[in-house]
Every structure is written in C-alpha cells, then in structure tokens.
Design a protein that fits this description.
single chain, about 110 residues, mainly alpha, 4 helices, binds zinc ion
Length: about 110
C-alpha cells in the first residue's frame, strides 16, 4: 500500500481543518463584539449562529484527533490494519476515509 499517498491526504485534510477552525474562532469573536449593538431578535440569531459554530468546531476538533491518530499509525507501521480483527483495510475504503480504524466487516 502507498502509505505516503495517505499521509499526504491526511496532512492536506489536517491543514484544511486547521484553517476552518481559525475561521470559526474568528467568527465566534465577531459575534460577541456585535452583540451589544443588536436587537433582541438578531441577538437570538447570533446565539444560534454561535451554537452552530461551536458544533462545527467540536466536529473539526474530533476530526483532527482522528487524523493525528492515523498519522501516528502510519509512523508506527500500523496504518491500514483493522484495530479489531487485524485484517487489512481496503485501499478504496481508506481513500474514502483515510482515518478509518475498522475494516468494512467490523464497521458494519
Ligand atoms: Zn476488522
């Protein structure tokens, strides 16, 4: 298996997520600053937006953890093997989700 290919995929994805996290953090700060100037209704909108930003942030942070774990597995030569049954995970599956921990049988 071409580990370098997956390492590149993971590093690229890691970069994208870090960028979107930066943007999310900036968006959160803008909402706080603007709140003082807003009416009640738009304040509620802003809070809803903030909740959504918080949820996206949590998703992004979880994804980053999964990517970190996958990169560690590449370094330890464990990448691409199912953590449950030790079978090799198909390359197609890893291309779809490079952070996959389980083979298709164990994931189902
Ligand atoms: Zn398995």
């Amino acid at each position: 298996m071409d580990y370098l290919k997956f390492k590149r995929l993971l590093l690229k994805r890691q970069d994208e997520i870090k960028n979107s996290l930066l943007q999310l953090n900036q968006a959160g700060q803008t909402v706080e600053l603007d709140q003082a100037m807003m009416g009640r209704l738009s304040r509620m909108d802003a809070m809803q937006g903030q909740e959504m930003a918080k949820a996206s942030k949590q998703r992004a942070e979880l994804e980053l953890k999964k990517i970190d774990a996958a990169l560690t597995r590449i370094d330890n030569n464990e990448y691409g093997y199912c953590v449950k049954c030790d079978e090799q995970i198909s390359e197609k599956r890893l291309e779809f989700d490079p952070t996959a921990l389980f083979c298709i049988d164990c994931a189902n």
